[in-house]
Amino acid sequence: MKPMYYNGKPIRTDIHFRDHLKHKVPVQVYRGGEHLDIGFIQNYTRFFVRINNKDYSRKLCRFISRPGY
What is the pLDDT of residues 38-64, one digit of tens each? Predict the structure, then answer.
């Protein structure tokens, strides 16, 4: 069963990142109040999330779910 994520929900845990990767749910990336990117997760580790061939720090950035984008 596909997990439900709503538009604007912060994603923080490995389970959230795994679900977004597996189900191809778009993710928006912010650092502070600045929008950096939007796209699909290609890979993730404890420290980084790869979106659009760029690695974003899980410590420095916020990741927001954007289903339906």
Answer: 999 999 999 999 999 999 999 999 999
Structure confidence by residue, pLDDT tens digits, 19-33: 999 999 999 999 999
Question: Domain of 21: which CATH number?
Answer: 2.30.30
The tokens for 60 are: 């420095």
- Cα separation of 41 and 28, whole Å? 10
**In terms of residue numbers, what domain contains 48?**
14-65
Half-sphere exposure of 1 (CA within 13 A, CB side): 3
